[in-house]
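Example record

The entry below shows one chain as it appears in the dataset: sequence first, then C-alpha cells.
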Amino acid sequence: NPAAPAENIPAPHRQTIINMLQETKDPDGDERLAAWIAAIGNSTFGFSDNVTYIPKGKGSWKHAALGTDAEEDDPSWKYDFWPSFLDSDWRLFHDALQAHRLYVLTELLPGYGISAA
C-alpha cells in the first residue's frame, strides 16, 4: 500500500479529513473552499483559525508577490522581477502545487495501477 496513514495526525482527525474529502463534492471550487475554511474556523480538525482567502487583487498573495492588484489576468502582461518574489507565499505555494501534482501523477496513482498522465 503506497499511501500509508499519516501517523502524526490523530485517528479521529484523520477520519474527519477523510470524511471532508469524500463529502465535499460541490462542483464549484469556491464552495468547496468555503466548506474547508468553515471547518477550520469551527475547530473541525482539532484547531481553530480565522482563515481568509483573497484570490486576486489587493491583499492577495499574488499582489504581494507580483505587485498587481488586478482582479482579472491578461496573458500579455509582463511583471518586473523583485528579489522578494523568490520567498513569496504565492511562488512557494505554486512550487508546492507542482511538486504535489508530479507526486500524484507519477507515484501515488501508478502505485494503485492508475495512469492519469
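Notes for this example: The first helix runs from residue 11 to 23. The helical segments are 11-23, 29-41, 61-66, 89-111.
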